[in-house]
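>> Question from a student workshop board

For tomorrow's exercise we were told to take the sequence and the ligand below, predict the bound structure, and bring the output to class. My setup keeps failing. Could a helper post the expected result so I can at least see what it should look like? The ligand is alpha-D-galactopyranuronic acid.
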Amino acid sequence: MERMFQTHHIRKKIELPLRWNLSTLNRTPAVEKYIPVPSCIETIPELNRYKGEVKIWTEKEFGGNLLLTFKGVGHTADVSLDERYLGNHYGAYGEFSFVLKDINYDKHVISVTADNSFSEESALHVENDYYSYGGITRPVLLEQIGEVYIKWAHITPVREEEGWRADIEVCLENITAQAKKVSVLLALTDTDGELGETVKSLPPEEFLIPAGGTAVYTEQMKNLHVQPYEPEKPVLYYLRTVLYENEVPTDDLTERFGFREITIDKNRMLWNGKEVKIKGFNRHEDYAEFGSAVPLAAMQRDIELIRETGANCIRTCHYPNEERFLDMCDEQGILVWEEAHARGLSEEQMKNPRFLEQSALSIDEMITCHYNHPSIFVWGLLNECASHTEYGRSCYEKLIGQIRALDGSRPVTFASCRFDDDICLDLVDIVSFNYYPKWYHDTPVGEYLKDRYDWIQTTGGAGKPLLVSEIGAGAIYGYRSELKEQWSEEYQAQALEEQIEAVLGFAPCMGVILWQYADCRVDESWFQKRPKSQNNKGVVDIYRRKKLAYEKVKELFHAL
Ligand code: ADA
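>> Workshop helper replied:
Here is what the output should look like for this input. Compare the format with yours to find the bug.
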């Protein structure tokens, strides 16, 4: 299962082997192994620090028209079917697919060359304060499709006087050389099964798709008397789309969403008209020896441990997350700030010729694939990039414009570290800053926050909600000291206490997202050789063992 619910009843999936073959291409002698898919190559001990290309392949019998989908390959993929090259994809955190047309039924080889090394070709995966893992790190899907198939379906819930409205868009692709007419049936139900209660069903409508192209079918469902999606009571609904050709069902897709509306009212964010206070954690997709291919049970354990502190929010720093994790957040009412891939790029790095195209791709994949998740309340981008320069602003302006064109229903933000010279705050709906008093500088937190807030009121961010998107301190798990010096667990707990009390006690702030939930691996070459080559600001370590700070955060999040 590549989602936490059933997405098809008609479209058939071909089960691919869970164990593929692997061979390194940049090591002599080559390392030849079996490897589970999905997983990170770094989980293989000999490859724990490998940077370069690996070939990963499998053999399977199939034929007909198929859709081959990769949920994520780290970080650059070249894909072939038998000897035929299918194409290339950049970016470990975005889903990509290939249509395989008129394939003869036989044994075929699906082969992926994955490259996790850094080069001028890679503008987003660079040496950084998190790790770019290699391999087929997210699920692979092989599905049989008709000559017209459903690429995606987006549902936008709209709150009206007389109830809720669902604005629906369904993108269909015609893989033949002739225009094709299909009938589209839409049904809103309360489960993903056949026996769900139908809340509303629309009569099938005929729709024409041009030869070899795509077309978007739009529809509205009005006056829906449904239960709203609230974090405390996350009620989910299912939209089933069924395609008919000459009255024969040829494809279907079930999408899941919730009836909730996010609005900004002056300096507050409203969830279905009620103010929301954010208490959250930044969470990297990184778990001890499994790297970014976090096992499902570990995802759930992270949500449990985060919820136990009284937190209500997770920021997917600094890239779109695996879809099953977002599904779990939807089901458990965890608010999600999801962001396109980028961290800490200088103006020079943003001038890499590949930067804008790779950033635009990350945004397009993120919103196209994750549009329906009700837990996602804001789209983020370009964490701590050059939002203080004119060239940087031109990039922020272009990419924020792309986000708004793809989704007008959610606010937009970016986490800034340009504390007194940011020139992009007019572009966002929520002003977010990463502050580190008590870690990178020993400043009283309350004073610092007031001082920075007053400066924001002199900029294009004046009067907007202010979210502290990062604040925290480091500690080495197990290092205890009554002297409370930096890197001790006692120091981290003490710093977080002052930080949380100051931020949650500062009325204009809409909340705080702590840096960070768990320690994570970083590039050894990066930033003063972080101890253990990890970012140690987690309140739990890479094995999710709690530090003193965990209990302190739990005490404060429940009390404030
Ligand atoms: C920045 C950055 C984070 C992390 C943090 C830190 O705010 O956004 O990714 O590097 O600093 O630990 O210093």
